[in-house]
Amino acid sequence: MRQPMQKPLIFAVPKGRILDEALPLMARAGVVPEAEFHDKKSRALSFACEDSDMRIIRVRAFDVATFVAHGAAQVGIVGSDVVEEFAYSDLYAPVDLDIGHCRLSVAEPVGQKPGNGTASHLRIASKYPNLTRRHFEKAGVQAEVVKLNGAMELAPGLGLASRIVDLVSTGRTLKDNGLVETSVILEISARLIVNRAALKTDERVAALVEDFRALVAEARAAG
């Protein structure tokens, strides 16, 4: 009796900084997107994979977690900041890929006086409301989070917030906008994420986890 064909495995990847570092690692695991994926003129969001029934979808980093958590994609790559911000129960992050390193930090204007926001209540601009609130709650501070999706560095100068919480790599953007990093909330790296149900029921997902785990161990052993 002929076996029913399996549905394509959906692999979600983020637009932006992590993707360039992830692509070589994905290729070594046999996840190689078709040529159109690299065509900057293409408006497609879903792509075939070479020599595989897998498909790759390219979406915003926050949406990678949502697609995988809800089972619309079975596997993905995203920063640990996104994993921690959403804390989806159906999302499992079994492999630290050791790429995409940066940090989630608090920053404020250079020389800001303590009176800009009381010690017990602060207004903070961020696209990470959950991580921001949790961080300040531990310090006994009530954080009112103004959610922005970009241009965070403008908020203090325009009076929208006294501080920001944002991703920091070199710190150059902060410096160029008159801000200084004051504390680190989370050290970040990219993670392979999977849907928990898919990991239990689809052997292809488990195989990918083992492939990526082996590749990362190999890279670390090589120094």
List keywords for this structure.
223 residues; 11 strands; elongated; six-stranded mixed β-sheet; D-Maltodextrin-Binding Protein, domain 2; 32% helix; 8 helices
Description:
By secondary structure, this protein is α/β, with parallel strands linked by helices. The chain has 2 domains: 10-100 and 189-221, D-Maltodextrin-Binding Protein, domain 2; 102-188, D-Maltodextrin-Binding Protein, domain 2, CATH 3.40.190.10. Helices cover 32% and strands 30% of the residues. It has 8 helices and 11 strands. A 6-stranded mixed beta sheet has the order 2-3-1-4-11-5, sandwiched between helices. Strands 8-7-9-6-10 form a 5-stranded mixed beta sheet. The longest helix has 19 residues, at 203-221. The protein is elongated, with a radius of gyration of 20 Å. The mean pLDDT is 93.
Number of domains: 2
Largest beta-sheet details: 6 strands, mixed
The SSE string, one letter per element, is EHEEHEHEEEHEHEHEEHH
As residue ranges, the low-confidence spans are none
Number of helices: 8
Total beta strand runs: 11
CATH architecture of the largest domain: 3-Layer(aba) Sandwich
Instruction: Give the mean pLDDT.
Output: 93
Radius of gyration: 20 Å
> Any idea what the shape is?
elongated
Structural category is: alpha/beta
- Sheet-strand content, in percent, reads 25-35%
Q: Give the CATH superfamily of the largest domain.
A: Periplasmic binding protein-like II
CATH domain fold name of the largest domain? D-Maltodextrin-Binding Protein, domain 2
Outline the secondary-structure elements:
Blueprint: E1 10-14, H1 17-28, E2 46-48, E3 55-59, H2 61-69, E4 75-79, H3 80-86, E5 91-96, E6 102-109, E7 121-126, H4 129-138, E8 142-147, H5 154-157, E9 163-168, H6 172-176, E10 179-188, E11 190-195, H7 196-201, H8 203-221
Parallel strand pairs: 1-3, 1-4, 7-8, 7-9
Antiparallel strand pairs: 2-3, 4-11, 5-11, 6-9, 6-10
